[in-house]
Amino acid sequence: MLSPAQLLQEFITLWVVIDPIGTLPVFLAVTQGMSAAHRRSVALRAIVVSFGVLTAFIVLGQIVLDALGLALPAFQIAGGIVLFLFALTMIFGHSKPEDEIAAAERVRQTSVFPVAIPSIASPGAMLAVVILTDNDRFSVAHQALTTAMMGLVLLVTLAIMLLAEPLHRVIGTTGAAVISRVMGMILAAVAVDAVLRAFVTIGALPGLGM
Prior knowledge:
Largest sheet: none
Number of helices: 8
Structural class: mainly alpha
Helix content: over 70%
Radius of gyration: 18 Å
Number of domains: 1
Order of helices and strands: HHHHHHHH
Shape: globular
């Protein structure tokens, strides 16, 4: 049984890797121009998808990674590339919001990418839930506790995304566009940093003083 200190450590780890606050600007950017109902649908679908993906990694992740021989740097590089490509779309953006029919299709698409993956269920989050249960991978109780704590963090993430609607109303379309581009630049830097750290880990680059 995990001690309270270990439970707190796991919760903090899950909070950091899922990053509910950091999901907000991504959610605002990809749902810009959508109706309130569509934004709620994106948020709910994204949480359901994220929960399913991360739960699968808790139960089967370590077994699959061991079988495939995949390491953390591979996930970091892949995730960094995906985040960088999405950051470019945030920076350059779309000219105008689509009409209602296109918006309905965007609900299905954006709830999975990029809101659920890789913003919420990021490569780091996938690896984190695997590592947290690695030493006790066949303990149902430990996996259940980790899943419960992950679910709590995801509920907070959902609440933040649902509160994005009044925030969006306050900042308006212009404000959302500015946030999208500024956060796109920050996200691009985060993506490059993830790739560089992975190269340092595998010894392809010297330490970068990070």
